[in-house]
Amino acid sequence: MRHALALAFSAVLAAGPLAAEELSVDAGDARLSGSFLSAEPPKALAVILPGSGPTDRNGNSPAGLRTDAYRLLAEALADQGIASLRADKRGVGASTGDGNAVTLDLYAKDAGLWIDLARDKTGLPCVWLIGHSEGGLVAMQTAEIRNDICGLILLAAPGRPVSQILLEQLRGVPALQPHMEALQKAMISLVAGHPVPPEDLPGPLIGIFAPPVQPFLMDLFAFAPAERAAAIDLPVLVVQGSADLQINPDDAELLATALPNGSLFRVNGMTHVLKTAQDETRSANLATYADPSLPLADGLVGAISDFILTPR
Q: Are strands 44-49 and 82-87 parallel, antiparallel or unpaired?
């Protein structure tokens, strides 16, 4: 093996041609946990990188997400002969470590451990990175430090700096309107790389910009997605849903245009959590964030699997 990986096989489930394994890897200051799902023998290999906050390997979060989107994606890819590994981030789910003491570079290094493990298990020469939302940034960061990446699939990934997107979102929150001046000052400070003292964060702002998460926010805000995408000379598929309330079509266009070898696939009616709402109302859209029984949006799996399996 390329790394001295500590593996723990806590469960092995077999169902027809599929074999699911629960794995763990020693990251030094944390033990990370994940799930490997494969059809035998696999035609290709993917690592699924989760979105922001305490989102786990399945696409769920104690902050209110109940989607099972990543589990559904892994199962659907396995049906197409694509093995996948998905994992809990530091301090999330079954993974240990400090979930606040992170950077995009650290997430990329953690992804590298899973890449090594997944390649060792399958014998495949390279890995496709599937990054959802913030995970798309981690995928780009990882592609810069690895030479064994087949290509990237960026699902609802930011095309502009996250600070701009977050400010747009927060401006639309009614409870924050009385604190807009303080909000904008805090954002300017963090973008410049300067922490914001707690006394400058009135009301609900202290929860958004809590001191323990400010170092990560400063690191995240410094990442310019379109600029970084321009340096990625790999096949990249940018996937964007028309009903996404968090990332808009302009972000997808920016990424696809900046990428030397990028293409854009639009999914009609897909929300940010990769599902389709029952109607076009905001309430129906948000309901997709809390219903794991909903299937993935039509066309999503086909677009991803076709992109991965197309000979190059």
A: parallel
25-36 core/surface letters (b: 16 or more CB in 10 A; e: else): bebeebbbbbbb
141-to-20, 54, 216, 222, 271 alpha-carbon distances in Å: 28, 20, 15, 12, 25
Q: Residue 38: in which H helix or E strand, if any?
A: strand 31-39
- CA–CA separation, 71 and 146 (whole Å): 25
Instruction: Give the global pTM.
Output: 0.93
Residue 293, classified by CB atoms within 10 Å of its CB into exposed (0-12), middle (13-18) or buried (19+), is exposed
Q: What is the pLDDT along the chain (312 residues), one digit of tens a residue?
A: 333 333 333 333 333 446 579 999 999 999 999 999 998 899 999 999 999 999 999 999 998 999 999 999 999 999 999 999 999 999 999 999 999 999 999 999 999 999 999 999 999 999 999 999 999 999 999 999 999 999 999 999 999 999 999 999 999 999 999 999 999 999 999 999 999 999 999 989 999 999 999 999 999 999 999 999 999 999 999 999 999 999 999 999 999 999 999 999 999 999 999 999 999 999 999 999 999 999 999 999 999 999 999 998
Give CA–CA dist 171/291, Å, rounded. Answer: 27
Q: Which of 126, 98, 132, 56 is nearest to 304 (CA)?
A: 132
State the Cα–Cα distance between residues 75 and 63, nearest whole angstrom.
24
Question: What is the residue whose two structure tokens read 């096949």?
Answer: 235
**Beta-sheet strand order (sheet of 262-267):** 12-15, 18-26, 31-39, 82-87, 44-49, 127-132, 149-155, 236-241, 262-267
The encoded tokens of residue 119 equal 């390649």
Residue showing tokens 């920016």:
254
